[in-house]
Each structure stands twice: as structure tokens, then as C-alpha cells.
Amino acid sequence: MQTLYGLHPVEEALKAGKRRFDHVIVARERRDERLEAIVSLAKELKIRVRTEPRETLTDMAHTAAHQGVVAIVRPQQFLSIEDVLEPTGSPRLVLALDGVEDPQNLGALLRSADGAGVDAVIMTERRAAPLSAVAAKAAAGATEHLRIARVVNLVRSLEELKRKNIWVIGLDERGSMDYDQFNFSGDCALVMGREGDGLHDLVRKTCDHLLRIPMAGGVSSLNVSAAASVVLFEAARQRRAKARPAGNSDDSPKSASKPKKLKGLGS
User: What CATH number should be reported for the domain whose range is 81-243?
Assistant: First the structure.
């Protein structure tokens, strides 16, 4: 079993109904409308609810940031790369994470992915932050609504995406195209690198294109979670524009055709 804590993570896990709950513990000292709603939902779902002193919850969560609620649940079930490759009937937007190590960054990335309508997230099993209670708290419950796959070899998984005609797009400050010049309206996977070092060399070489976010100040790049948000919501904007009837919007993508491959990138 696994510990889940925080108002958003516990509430969204209850609503999603994908996890098996053993029980929910609430702090004896806290009584408010939001917490009572979680207690009512748990009881409605026939999940045991216990009341304990706040210090007990802090010991269980290993942090005082539990907001008065802790749940004991089964770990989240992950998809395989084959699940990600299944047709959805519409262009797919996939987020692939190349060794993101900070659980706060992971949570923020997953929250943005959910908000931007990402179809699936691919994470590596090794040398990366696990989908822990800390990451789930930072994701504010988004982990319960995302389709997440864990893979051993990211390069091999990206090659499989490419074989299914899904563009593999890396975000890299050395990229030769600005992110808002790329057409995200088709099947594509955005690959984000680890903090500080960015994409691994082999992952970078596997990408069909490398995009950059132009920076106007003295700093050369954004935090990985902030950078992913910028690009994912641009992709979401383009997809919404394409879905609107003709003549209803002026913010359609630059071109409806697939972009040409950049020289020296991809295979």
C-alpha cells in the first residue's frame, strides 16, 4: 500500500475511482467544509475513515503539508508503451520525460500535462523521480486522471512512437526552431530532459525536431516544468484552433501540413 496526502490528491483519487483505498485518516483538529466533503465522499464509497491527532498524520506523511488528510491506497497502475500506441481516433499529444529527478518538478509537469489535454505521459523507471506522494501532492490530483506509462528504455519507446508516425519533438535550448513555429496539430510527442543537463545525447539524436523557447532576458532557459507548460499549452491552443469551424479563429497553426525535418535531426 502507498500513502497519499493532501486535499487535492485524496479528493481526486476518490473521484477518479481508479485506486483501491484501504482507509482515509483525517486530523482531529481540522473541521471545515472541504475536509467534510472528502469524508462524505469516502463514506459514500464505503471507505473507512479514521480520526487521529494531526501529529499522527504528520508522521505517516513524513511532512506537515498533509492539509489534514492522509489516505492509504494501492499504488497507481502504469500503462505499457503498447497502450500508449493504441489509436485514439484523434491526433495524439504525448509527453515523454527523460529522467526528471525532482518530485516537485514531476508533479508540476503532470499537472500541466493534464491541463493541456495530454493523452499519455511516458516516464522512465530508472534515474528518475518515482510517482511518490510528494509528486502527487505537487500535481494537485492530476496523476489520478492521466494515462501514465513507465518504460525501461526511453529511446526504444520513442522509436516505437516514430514507427507509428508520431513526431518526436525535443525541447532544447540549442534547438533551431522556436516552439511556436511548429505545427502541433498532428500526432506528436514532446520530450523534456532532466533538470540542469537537459536531454541525454541519444534521446536528443532520436528526436525528429529540436525546438527552443526564445528568452528575452539574461537567463538562457526555463525550469523544466515551466518550459513544458509553455509548449504544451501552445500545442493545446493550436489543436483547439484546428477543431473550430473554418472562419471562427485567426490563431490557426502556420501550416496544416507536417513540418519538414530539420537537417541533421532524427533518423
Answer: 3.40.1280.10
Report the b/e string of 120-150 with b at 16+ CB within 10 A: bbbbbeeebbebebbbbbbbbbbbbebebbb
Q: Which residue carries 518515482 as its cell?
A: 130
C-alpha grid cell for residue 191?
520530450
How far apart, in whole angstroms, are the C-alpha atoms of residue 81 and residue 156? 10
pLDDT at site 92: 93
pLDDT of the residue at 77: 87
Cα separation values, 119 from 29, 91, 95, 179, Å: 40, 9, 8, 20
Q: What is the b/e burial string over 158-179, where b = at least 16 CB atoms within 10 angstroms of the residue's CB? A: beebbeeebbbbbbbbebeeeb
CATH 3.40.50.1240, applies to 2-73: no
DSSP 265: -
Residue 262 has pLDDT above 60, yes or no: no
The answer to pTM > 0.90 is no
Strands 148-151 and 120-124: parallel
Domain regions of the chain by residue span: 2-73, 81-243
Residue showing cell 526552431: 177
Q: What is the pLDDT, as a whole number, of residue 173?
A: 85
